[in-house]
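Sharing a chain and its predicted structure for anyone who wants a worked example. Both blocks are below, sequence first, tokens second.
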Amino acid sequence: MRLPAYPLMTCDPFFSIWSRTDKLSDSDTVLWCGLEKPIRGTAEIDGAVFRFLGLGAEPAMEQTALDTAPYVTTYTFEAARVRLVVRFWTPLLLDDLHRLSLPVSFVDCTYEPLDEAEHDVQVSLSLDEKFCYDGKAKSCVFFTQNACGRPFAVMGQIRQKPLSASGDGVGADWGWWCLLGGKVRAARGIHATRSLKPGVTSAFCVGFDEGLAIEYFGRKLPPFWREKWPDLRSAMVDSYQNREALFAALQAQSDRLLADAAPFGAAYQAMLTAAARQILAAHKLVRSPAGELLYLSKECHSNGCINTVDVSYPAVPFFLLYRPELVKAMLTGVFTFASLPLWQADYAPHDIGRYPHADGQVYALRPPYAFRRRNVYKHKHFSIYEPHFQMPVEECGNMLILAYAYAKATGDTEQIEENYSLLERWAAYLSSQGAQLKNQLCTDDFAGHSEQNVNLAIKSTVGLASFAGIAGLLGRETKAMQDARHMALALDSNRKADGTLPFSLLDAEGWSLKYNLVWDRLFSFGLFPEDLYFAESDLYREKLNAYGVPLDSRKSFTKSDWMLWAACLDGTDRNVRAFSRAILRFLEETDDRLPFSDWFDTLKPERRGFTHRSVQAGLWMPVLLRKTLAQQQDA
């Protein structure tokens, strides 16, 4: 499978290393956003040195194969009558949150002779000093040390300032990079060399000790993995000693993912494979001062916000399937911020800061506050925000739907009980807006603002019904379901001749992907009639272009996550299969060599923006819906 970029070491937003060429030796590796983070790999075979990873003066080995699985990228090379297999993987284990949060990645190497002769094979791996800083070169220190009975090569800036910077396409300008495996040395980078035996896998282990992970409302939090290991070196040694068991567990997780996707075809499996690692590497897991888990997304190539509500909303299907606890952890920080004195709005916030600073919503800040993004949460007056750029209906609907989805899936009502007053306030706001929405910013406004947006009104309707579900789980009374049904009837009365709903109530000719309808089916609310789903689905098939279905009638671009949600409405796997093939075609043909973008054109294979975003976890919606409906039938 050809991809725009290939995942190599994928841990978190500051440790996510990719190759942007089909041949591993044709380019230097980069951070997900394109910053140079060169890794160099060479193989010395019977005294002759060849290059298999990154740029350099040595002759490149011939790359004969490339295989990308959900959690493993494997390359095969040949030179001097030797075949070398190099495997990149990170133990992103959803059943072990400490491992999931650990910034440690492996490079496995195995060789076999292509003749019957014996060969002397040594493989070397080097990380350039550019790993230590973001952009302009800084003074660094390089050294080796023994820790936990193993030799390490270590490098980092002389002056360490953890959490000193934030932004969008940036890396960590602090921390210590460690390399374990074989004979190590440190000079203008860190290096390791080891001899290989035929058919025996030898590994290099790369780790990043960030020191502090997140600033959370004035408190600097350590990474979650520190609850299990006292320091990174001991964590790396533990991982190294248990790598075979970790790899087996990762393979089992991969097999489960592919099996769940199999009913929707090979293209759907391939699409999920392309997304599987970046959706995890776009998050950071920490524990709040109150002891709560926080699973914080970075809004990659989209202003760099942390814990953005309309990023968590599309991402939630994957996590509801495989680790629902992380859905709760996505919502906790938003509830905390919305409970502070600053947040005086009747609607939900957009985000809680700019990664890695969760210091209060930075989106829609007025000047001069927009240039002073630290400690936003300390302000007492909501006037620091520009109301025109808020997303009231969007974020209220998102929070209500997500809170209900988690509680319904798990039976855990603690979070909705503790935050009931906020949820009630947000439901009241939706009810006050009705079905004919004013001109509000929403997550679909890539082509500009829109008034009386129907898809947004559908989200509002489902959000109200979700609050009714929340109240029901807690044994409380509300008229939210009555209001939701009234709004649904009002919207449904605007059907066009073909049975579909328009893009806007003010634009009878326009159309759009009504992806928010999928929750009506998932939750079995019955707010909208089945024939609406089928009419909309027929329209989407009609509008399908080479690389997907446009988001709406205004422009030719689309969003991959919303396409797959909309594909679920036909009640079969027909649209899921067709849309997956179109998205896979984009991945195979685009010249934009960055991780899987969720925003691209449907007429030509061009990325419009965004990359490496966690929203691609929304591509698992067909799996979630299929499993949910099966459980409902069995109940």
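Comments welcome. The chain is about 30% helix and 20% strand.
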